[in-house]
Amino acid sequence: MTTAGWNGKSNLEKTIAVGIHGTPQLKMDERRRFLGFFRERVIQAATFRQLTSKEGIQALVQAVHDQLANEVVVHAQARTAAMPVIIAARQKGVDFTITTNPKFVGEVAVVVVAKVAVDVATVLAEGGDK
Question: How far is CA 80 from CA 11, 31, 47, 52, 74, in A?
Answer without folding.
Answer: 49, 23, 14, 10, 10
